[in-house]
Amino acid sequence: MEEDVLHNLRLKLTKDSLKEKIIRSGYQKAFDEIAEILLNKVAICKGEKIFYIKDIEFYLYENNHRDIVTYPRICKAGQWFFHPSGIDISFESSVDVKSNDFELFQPILREDAFFGGVLIRAIYPADKAPSDACKYNLDGPHKVEWALFDCFDAFNEITDFPHLIECEHKIEYITKVRKNLKPKENDYRKKIETILNSYYEDSPVSIDEWINIYKSFEEKTYRYTI
């Protein structure tokens, strides 16, 4: 059973599986299926500690879904991906990168770019209630990151690195819009310019087009929370 659940989840995180589901049912349905597994059928194991996932958000950039707040990456399906806002369980992701003398990661947003993942916003101990996430300081993306990846021995093999396990625990969840997308003082131009200048070598559309695209994602219910 465990291998079936985890294998199924990893498969759903692959580019081909996501694209197939998106074509057949749309982005929300593709995310629904992954959320159902993450919130109800798996847990995160770190040594002897077991955590259930309480709150997640989906981010995906591709040519027909230009969710520009998604952090660019090159990852295999199911890898942990660290970024300035926290940590993702990554989709299979690829993006062209400009070569340079300093080996800096400079993505180029070509039509075949496809990257993203699932941001973990909150977790809670498996023997506690979801409402205890805040009590145990596990409510917030960086708090999740600090709890799961706080310290590891630099001289010996790691034996308690966080990983997913099958652990069914049926519980109801709801969908919401993602948090903190609206820019400060509603300055969308500054927000877009900051993203482009921070991460990308080139842009396929103008700033004005990006602003309209960005706004179109603000009301997407890509957050799943218990």
Question: Which terms summarize this structure?
Answer:
226 residues, alpha+beta
Describe the structure.
The chain has seven helices and eleven strands. By secondary structure, the chain is an alpha+beta fold. Strands 1, 2, 3, 4, 5, 8, 9, 10 and 11 form a nine-stranded antiparallel sheet that branches. A hairpin with a 2-residue loop joins strand 4 and strand 5.
Q: In total, how many beta strands? A: 11
Helicity range of the residues? 25-40%
**Which stretches of 5+ consecutive residues score pLDDT under 50?**
none
Shape estimate? globular
The main pleated sheet reads as: 9 strands, antiparallel
Q: Averaged pLDDT, please?
A: 94
The amount of beta strand, in percent, is 15-25%
Q: Which structural class fits the helix and strand makeup?
A: alpha+beta
The helix/strand order is HHHEEEEEEEEHHEEHHE
Rg from alpha-carbon coordinates: 18 Å
**Total helical segments:** 7
List the quaternary state of the chains: single chain
**Distance between the amino and carboxyl termini:** 24 Å
Secondary-structure topology with pairs:
Blueprint: H1 2-12, H2 15-25, H3 27-40, E1 42-46, E2 49-62, E3 65-66, E4 80-83, E5 86-90, E6 96-97, E7 107-108, E8 114-125, H4 132-135, H5 141-148, E9 163-166, E10 174-176, H6 188-199, H7 207-216, E11 223-225
Antiparallel strand pairs: 1-2, 1-9, 2-3, 2-8, 2-11, 4-5, 5-8, 6-7, 10-11
Structure described in brief:
The protein contains 7 helices and 11 strands. With 226 residues, it is α+β, with helices and mostly antiparallel strands.
